[in-house]
UniProtKB/TrEMBL annotation:
SUPFAM superfamilies: Glycerate kinase I (SSF110738). Gene3D superfamilies: Glycerate kinase, domain 1 (3.40.50.10350), Glycerate kinase, domain 2 (3.90.1510.10). Keywords: Kinase, Transferase. Belongs to the glycerate kinase type-1 family. Signal peptide: none annotated. GO terms for molecular function: kinase activity. InterPro entries: Glyc_kinase_flavodox-like_fold, Glycerate_kinase, Glycerate_kinase_RE-like, Glycerate_kinase_sf. Pfam families: Gly_kinase. This is Glycerate kinase. Coiled coil: none annotated.
Length: 386
């Protein structure tokens, strides 16, 4: 029996782009099943690779820019212009200006990192005449609630002495007032949509500082400071605009950038998988598939909350199509993914090794894991014919 296999992975942070992951899995599948029909749907989630994927899918083009990086230094960046009919649409992945990959390991302090570069990319798109802007939120290295972006767009964040606060989420604990009088007026005339993890909240038990701060280098004390900062941020936003962003779905996306986009750019937040699949032809390809293979750097108890493997798995399961997930690491709670569309999962790491080695050999490990999964599937096919 010739299988049609849809490869629909995410990228592996700081290791492999979503395109690289897709190619590695396809090569592994072909080693075991050279006759298989392979379809590809690289599932960008708003993080790294989003702009390139959407520009490629629509026949658009990339624009280069230099912006303020997350640690305050200038970094080379980019934004995209989508092709096709309709309003002139820019696409920005926040990771290109404030991503974790732009934060050197020895400088990973989310109390200091800034989203200012995201605002600078929005200004570039406005300068170029964009009528609509799509912002992808993912793979962030910041926890400033979008404060840096807000300042780039013209907002002022002041302490109780009327002085401008320094960059970084930690300083927001001292925020007394938000001044919107110089906010760029062009924001009123452009539609901004943001693709976010809908499950990420700004505050509360699943607040962005508590859940994601440690992944960005925050110590326990820094997590507590960032929680206080985000609480103050939400309070001051409510005073200045009347918006309650503390518990709004998606407001905690990308270190709270979702809250900043809603407040200062007038953005509409959307579940990232829903808005991305509009551009990537996912539904049509899924209808043709017998099996889906997805992948992400880590599979754990957080995966059912908006991560690519479970989003892909849910849509496949609704059509009765099984999904296999490959992951760099299998973490605590990964078995919960069985209730969210994943039929089977496996780690690509087969023996003890350092993180650096796993990153360096990521493509090789993925090829081997995909081949192994297909050979196990062939065993099942033979048993079914007995």
């Amino acid at each position: 029996m010739t299988l049609t296999i849809l490869i629909a992975p995410s990228g592996f942070k700081e290791s492999l782009s979503v395109g690289d992951v897709t190619c590695a899995i396809a090569e592994g599948v072909r080693r075991a099943m050279p006759d298989a029909r392979i379809l590809s749907a690289p599932m960008v989630d708003g993080g790294e690779g989003t702009t390139e994927a959407l520009v490629g899918a629509t026949g658009g083009r990339l624009h280069r820019a230099i912006v303020t990086g997350p640690v305050g230094d200038p970094v080379p960046s980019f934004w995209g212009e989508l092709g096709g009919d309709g309003p002139r649409t820019a696409v920005i992945e926040m990771a290109a200006a404030a991503g974790l990959s732009l934060v050197p390991r020895e400088r990973r302090d989310p109390t200091l990192t800034t989203s200012r570069g995201v605002g600078e990319l929005i200004l570039r798109a406005l300068d170029d005449g964009a009528e609509r802007i799509l912002v992808g939120c993912g793979d962030s290295g910041i926890n400033d609630g979008g404060a840096g972006m807000a300042r780039a767009l013209g907002a002022r964040l002041l302490d109780d002495q009327g002085r401008d606060l320094p960059e970084g989420g930690g300083a927001l604990a001292r925020l007394a007032r938000i001044d919107l009088s110089d906010l760029d007026l062009r924001l009123r005339h452009v539609r901004i949509d943001a693709a976010v993890n809908w499950h990420n909240m700004l505050l509360g038990p699943r607040g962005v500082a508590r859940v994601f701060g440690p992944q960005k280098g925050a110590t326990p004390d820094q997590v507590r400071l960032l929680e206080k900062s985000m609480e103050t941020w939400a309070e001051r936003i409510c005073v200045a605009t009347g918006r309650d962003v503390g518990s709004a779905p998606g407001a905690g996306a990308s270190g709270g950038l979702g809250a900043g986009l809603v407040t200062f750019a007038g953005a509409r937040l959307h579940p990232r998988f829903d808005i991305m699949r509009e551009y990537l032809d996912f539904e049509r390809l899924l209808d043709c598939a017998d099996l889906v293979i997805t992948a992400e750097g880590s599979l754990d108890g957080q995966s059912p909350y908006g991560k690519v493997p479970c989003e892909v798995g849910r849509h496949a399961a609704a059509r009765g199509i099984p999904t296999i997930a490959l992951a760099g690491t299998i973490g605590k709670g990964a078995s919960e993914t069985f209730q969210h569309g994943i039929a089977a999962f496996a780690s690509i790491v087969k023996r003890p090794c350092t993180l650096e080695e796993a990153i360096r050999k990521g493509d090789k490990l993925l090829r081997r894991a995909a081949e192994d999964a297909m050979r196990m599937l062939q065993v099942g096919q033979r048993l079914a014919l007995r």
